[in-house]
Amino acid sequence: MLKGKTIILGVTGCIAAYKSCTLVSRLKDLGAEVWVALTAEAAKFVTPLTFRTLSKNPVITDLFAEELSSLPVPHISLAEKADLIVIAPATANIIGKIAQGIADDPLTTIVMASNAKKLLAPAMNPNMWNNPLVKENCKKLKVHGFEFIGPMVGKLACGEWDVGRMSEPEEIVDRITSLIGKKKDLSGKTFLITAGGTREAIDPVRFISNRSSGKMGRALAEAAQKRGAKVALISAPDQVKSAEEMRQKVAQAVRSGRPDYLIMAAAVSDYSPKVKDLKSKVKKTEQNLSLELKPTPDILAELGQTKGKTKLIGFALETEDLVKNAKLKMKNKKLDLIVANDASAMDADEAIVKIISRSGKVDSLPKMPKSMIAEKILDAVLRL
Predict the structure, then answer these.
(1) Which whole number is the average pLDDT over 340-365?
(2) What is the pTM (predicted TM-score) of this model?
(3) Whole-angstrom distance, CA of residue 58 vs CA of residue 63
(4) Looking at the annotation, which residues are catalytic?
């Protein structure tokens, strides 16, 4: 989503500077070119070498450094290159300097010379954040078009639980993509996406289910919508409960208007109790309880037979022979794309997945947040 975009990341002297390392990695994963401008104070928390390794660019600590000699006038060249300047963490000091038009170091000099959009992620002690002078400086910068994200309430380095914590890198990335990302490459496309884990009732209070949280399906729906698509989301267990209810809801949605893409991210139960009493609770006794199960409808296979021009994307959770079993599932159920992962992805914010196409190509992704995996899946969907 950020391919071809140049981002200047300013890092200032705050313990939260360590989070900026993750931020650089996330931005690089999305295709951005990242240049880090490090203040002298920030360099005491994270070394320039760390940011140079992550960004694959020289770190800006001195505008007269030899490694910047390829840039005729570094602060002007970088200011003109930038699509966005992000300062994370942004201390009270840097906010005050920028608000007063001070340019006495590489970061503030670049900020003053750039017409690019600017995003600040404050991080500081709550007394500093609530100081009227800091509030006035922030208000002044907002008047001049600066955007802010955070700070959040949380545990601070001083030990207090209060406002002042820097927003998490994933949240900052989301804001960055909303500001400069290629958001409309799915404009005019329609998506039907399922999410969550279904529940198969045993009695009025008990059910069989799985550990699916629905995070992946919801991340896909949100990402597709941000990129301009019209999205319908069917989520378990809030919208539908059982596999049969999911089957009916999906069939109804398909009939009402065939989507361009149907992504079955929901973890649909494979079995359901053969006999169940939904009126009476099964009483506990000293005897063993036998529960006979029957297969639930194979929704994915049914959709594969009737999909027409709709591109069908499925998920495979395997505990062994991941790629082999995922490819077999894709073939048997006539999928156009399959996303494979192991059980560690369930109910987690991050995952390691493999995106497999019908040609047999396997795109192995490193561990990353599901919001970023969603972007990678959508990129693959666009290539179908």
Answers:
(1) 93
(2) 0.65
(3) 11
(4) 158
